[in-house]
Amino acid sequence: MIDQLWLLICAGLVLLMQAGFMCLESGLTRTKNNINVAVKNLSDFGLSVILFWAIGYGLMFGLSQWGGIGGSNFFLGTTGNPEEAAFFLFQAMFCGTATTIISGAIAERLKFEAYIIIVILVSGFIYPVFGHWAWNEAGWLRQLGFLDFAGSTVVHSMGAWVSLGTLLLVGAREGRFTPTGTQKIQGSNLPFAVLGALLLWVGWLGFNGGSTFVFNDQVPQIITNTVLAGTAGMVTAMLLSQWYLKRSEVEEIINGSLAGLVAITACCDLVSSPLAVVVGITAAGVARWVSSLLKRYKIDDAVDAIAVHGGAGLWGTLCVGLFGNVEARHSQLLVQLLGVAIALAWGTGLTWLILQLLQRWYPLRVSPEAEALGLNISEHGAKTDAYELFQVMDHQAATQDLTLRVPVEPFTEIGHIATRYNQVIDALEQNHRENAESLEELYTITAMAVAAIEHQNFDPDLFASFGDRPDELGILGRSLQQLLQTINQQTAALEQLQQQQQTTLKAVLGEIFQQRFGEPSLTYQGQLPDLPSALTMAEITHMAIAATSFGQFLTQVQATNVASGENQPVAADWND
Q: Which of 102, 264, 414, 464 could form a disulfide with 385 if both were Cys (CB 3.0 to 4.6 A apart)?
């Protein structure tokens, strides 16, 4: 009874790993995709458990057919058999773990329906068949001596290799790789990712500790080795990050700790505590190397799941041969190499082949537009307050429409930002409206000034409506009024001066004509029209002296006036 209780407790701890993976993967992906990642973790757990109950458990632990596949215990009934019920529940959690690893690696680009197809493929066939080979007492790998205590390869690497096969088809996220190198896509919530890693640590205690299937003397040492390997991987990753990047990156620390946990999973029942530390240290280095290798070949793993679960899982499985039975080290290592190679070929190759055939009729990847919009919206219609904020901001940047406002979600950080943003837009809109009105009025007053000049209408009252304003336009209106008043005054003075000049010139001409032709000066002055402004006084005087008669002078004046546009009439009596 104690063994069953222990197994049920460990099953609950392994279930907690689902929450850990959800937090980790959601935190390491962008905000526009985090809902999609979260719901994939929930959905794949439900589907994997029900499929494992209906098909997978029978394929994995049913009566073996030639060591290749199970043929019994489908649609498992556990009534009256509590031992098998506890064992099934524990193994179902393992199936869920293998499946949910995939969601993080292929995040931010795959259709939700395509992911569901992969979940069905993995939990219903790929995982249980390989599990039969490795963990069923009659499985052919198990018969050869292959050992994987809690699933470094069977669970973790299998999830990673399926991810690799999928990524080889669907490709990298937009903007991940550039002609000059790799562009880091920053996760949306690193504290959330750290929480996920801590939850995985807690779940791992049940993952490895429960794989004894009994509560015996091995359990404390297994759990101790698990913790030591995880911490050794974490510290190593921290040091490597400082060495290569000159800083301790959060993702590096998380992945180093998980790499240590993954690697020790295969051999935690065999190695001593110092060797568990060695396994953790080396696993962190292997994971970092695999991550660099994937980037070199432009394989975009969103959360480094292949490096952590595939690379470190492969290494941990080989550590069984390296650090386990010293006397049979060579033969054990060969069997372990065979096992990890079969797992890689089975997981990656079969996944790639099936999805390649499927992709001919059904595209796995979302459209570029949907990817840019984010899978939260395009796949689930799930909006967030951050999305609403960015949507309005993007629209305003494109259209300069200041009438839009961001919806405010009270009592949230984004809601507080949205409130302040709306206040800024209110001020900008008011300032823009005032500027537009001022610009329109400035245009009006400018047009009035131009029209006054064109039509020679210098009435100061034209700008009376602006002269009473207290602002800059009022100053301009009053200035224009003063300018028109000055123009009118100068025009009147000029006309008066011209009149005086005409009077003086006519008097001079009257005297000249009196002396030449004998009539009184006033008689000539009375007959003179307005003299041409186009001629100087000297020129007009010269014309008067040179004229042979007063009539000839008037004819010349008239011709000059006509030529200049003044066209003043001349008295008919003097035309002879």
A: 414
Backbone angles phi, psi at 519, to 5 degrees: -75, 160
Q: What is the pLDDT of residue 478?
A: 78
Helix (H, G, I), strand (E, B) or coil at 12: helix
Taking alpha carbons only, the member of 44, 38, 390 closest to residue 193 is 38
C-alpha span between 281 and 257 (Å, rounded): 9
Mean pLDDT of 90-100: 97
Following DSSP, what letter does each residue of 387-452 receive, concatenated?
A: HHHHHHHHHHHHH--TT------TTSHHHHHHHHHHHHHHHHHHHHHHHHHHHHHHHHHHHHHHHH
**Burial of 197 from C-beta contacts in 10 A (0-12 / 13-18 / 19+):** buried
How many other CB atoms are found less than 10 A from the CB of residue 528?
23
Question: In this structure, how many other beta carbons lie within 10 angstroms of the beta carbon of residue 296?
Answer: 9
Please check whether residue 141 is in contact with residue 203, taking contact to mean a CB–CB distance below 8 angstroms: no
Highest mean pLDDT out of 45-49, 372-376, 476-480, 485-489: 45-49
Quote the Cα angle for 350-353-355, to 5°: 105
**Strand, helix or coil for residue 178:** strand
- First-to-last alpha carbon distance for the chain, in angstroms, is 151
Task: Decide if 113 contacts 78 (C-beta within 8 A).
Answer: no
- Here the tokens at position 439 are 């610009």
d(CA 13, CA 200): 9
Q: Are 248 and 263 in contact (CB under 8 A)?
A: no
User: What are the phi and psi torsion angles at 70 (to 5°)?
Assistant: -80, 150
Contact 526, 559 (CB under 8 A): no
d(CA 444, CA 306): 70
Q: How far apart are CA 529 and CA 561, in angstroms?
A: 10
Contact (Cβ atoms closer than 8 angstroms) between residue 246 and residue 137? no
Of 102, 151, 107, 106, the closest CA to residue 122 belongs to 102
Residue with tokens 């994971």: 287
Q: How many Cβ atoms sit within 10 Å of the Cβ of residue 517?
A: 14
The string of DSSP letters for 516-574 reads HH-S-HHHHHHH--PPPTTS-HHHHHHHHHH-SSHHHHHHHHHHHHHHHT------GGG
Mapped onto helix, strand or coil, the DSSP state of residue 110 is strand
Alpha carbon separation from 128 to 68, 347, 453, 456 (Å, rounded)? 11, 11, 94, 99
| Res 147 pLDDT > 80 | yes
- Coil, strand or helix at 70: strand
Instruction: Say if residue 460's pLDDT is above 80.
Output: no
Q: Give the H or E element holding residue 192.
A: helix 190-209
Q: How confident is the model at residue 505 (pLDDT cuts 50, 70, 90)?
A: confident
